[in-house]
Amino acid sequence: MAIPHAIPYQGSKRQLAEKIAPFIPSEIGRFIEPFAGSGALSLYMAYHNKANHFILNDINAPLMHLWDAILTNPHQLAEQYATLWHHQLGRERRYYDLVRLRFNKSHAPYYLLYLLARCVKASVRYNNDGEFNQSPDNRRKGKHPQTMKHDLLQTSALLRDKTRLYNQDYARILKLATPHDLVYLDPPYAGLAQKKTSRYIQTIDQSRFIQQLEWLNHAQIPFILSYDGKTGRTHFQKDLPVSLNLTHVELDAGRSSQQTLLGNHQITYESLYLSPALLDRLPSDLIQPKQLSLFEGIA
Question: Which CATH topology does 17-54+168-195+211-283 take?
Answer without folding.
Answer: Rossmann fold (3.40.50)
